[in-house]
Amino acid sequence: MTPASRAPEGESNRCPLCGDAISISPSRPPGDAPCPNCGVLLWWPALQSDGGFAFLVGEGTLYEIAATTKEDAIATLVRQMVDQGGLDASLAPDALAALYRREEVGTTAIGGGVAIPHARIDGLDQVVGILGCAPHGVDFGSVDGAPVTHLFLLVGSQNDPSGYLRALEAVAKAIRAIR
């Protein structure tokens, strides 16, 4: 799949979520095309059509963050997850601790400005994910040395390892498709 340079068929020059008129041009990196009004990734609805991205909060909205550290980036996205109703506030401390522990094991930055912070916790029934954009870049200690500008944060259930792996697989496939 290639990133859309316009809204889906039948919706030319309109955001499929908010309906506002938009002007989209192809950009680098591919897929970096949020609606200026609501922030939804304009190519994301096509990826969601197979149901493989139902775990994303905000219907795949790309949340812009102004973080300067990876810990701040992760904390900001977890707070946004709570604010959007994707994660119960009582689970946020456990999610943060698990995500920070995962980063201590090794970076979740995969190169090309992308990181996939992920962890599993008790008390969660299903996988929940959120998309973040850090326009100024955040140092995640990526193997290619590039600052991270796009984050796919996932929190899964300790009781559902297969759902967690399916979500990681869906994210990996989406990243490969837009590179």
Automatic annotation (TrEMBL):
Write down the EC number: 2.7.1.-
Transferase is among the record's keywords? yes
GO molecular function: any one?
transferase activity
Instruction: Write out the coiled-coil annotation as residue ranges.
Output: none
* Span of domain PTS EIIA type-2: 54-179
Keywords from the named record: Transferase
The protein's name is: Nitrogen regulatory protein
Q: Which organism is it from?
A: Blastopirellula retiformator
The organism's lineage is: Bacteria, Pseudomonadati, Planctomycetota, Planctomycetia, Pirellulales
